[in-house]
Amino acid sequence: MKPNIETFIGCDAPYEEADLVLFGAPFDSTTSFRPGARFGSAAMRHESFGIETYSPYQDADLEDRALFDAGDLELPFGSSEQALQDIEEMTTQILNDDKIPLMLGGEHLVTLGAIRAMVKKYPNLQIIHFDAHCDLRDDYLGTKLSHACVLRRCYELTGDQRIHQFAIRSGERSEFTFAKKHTKMHTFGFAGLRETVTALKDTPVYLTIDLDCLDPSIFPGTGTPEAGGVTFNALLKAIKIASQAHLVGADVVELAPLLDASGTSTAVACKTLRELLLSMTKEK
Q1: 29, 222, 230, 263: which one has the fewest Cβ atoms less than 10 Å from its Cβ?
Q2: Residue 3 — pLDDT band, cuts 50, 70, 90?
Q3: What is the dihedral of CA 71, 76, 81, 85, to 10 degrees?
Q4: CA distances (Å), 144 to each of 148, 186, 195, 221, in order?
């Protein structure tokens, strides 16, 4: 008999041997519209067994990678700051062990906890950000810690022109104004991504993927769906391009599985994660 431990498909290598460590951050306490992203990471693990470890897109297999799934953190829903501290500590541990962290949300605020750890190890860190929303508000309803503010808080850690935003199609006017001065924003799609990756060369990069960059006809199971999004194939192509950068960490956030009873959104998230895992690692 073996214990019933559920991991994302193909992510069952011993921790000591792993190149990349997957972990969940099931937190959605600042969600501004429809909650439920806290269930995203567990749903992706459970439903991952509905896909294959092999990717015909890359002719690669998760079975040939050294991947470890650490499970979900137990986060306090009543304290955003404590949740972020727990995420930072987990990310720091993985980095200290010379492994790549890949976090599953959860709402987008969880990215801030990971970035706090990343900039301590990589002071020149750059961020590539796929999203429907700017996430550059200084506050949301008076609070600085919100998924609507997460990239603004990250900007305060990285500084000017180190956040590269793609597929953005929603936000307040002030956010777009801020972006013109302080980030590098590419609206409505992934135009300019290849040039961005080339320009970054060997600079450490963190990739954050808010799945609502996808059109809601493809991915309705998210808290703030926005019409006019990218296609699944466009996202896969963008992941492949982004992975040519020096990726030192990543996350996939904002799946709210209970908002799509068909299970389609979770299936899309699982396949996206498989392709990201394969893109970020090499055969053992």
Answers
A1: 263
A2: confident
A3: -30
A4: 9, 24, 32, 26
Instruction: Please calculate the CA angle 257-108-210 and round it to the nearest 5 degrees.
Output: 70
Domains of the chain (ranges; CATH) run 15-280 (3.40.800.10)
What dihedral angle (degrees, nearest 10) is formed by the CA atoms of 229, 87, 36, 238?
A: 20
Chain segment 37-56, per-residue pLDDT in tens: 999 999 999 999 999 999 99
CB atoms within 10 A of CB 283: 10
Beta sheet of 163-168, edge-to-edge order: 67-72, 20-25, 100-105, 246-253, 204-210, 126-130, 163-168, 184-187
**Amino acid at site 133:** H
Contact criterion met (CB below 8 Å) for 82 and 76: yes
Q: Which two tokens stand for residue 162?
A: 């180190």
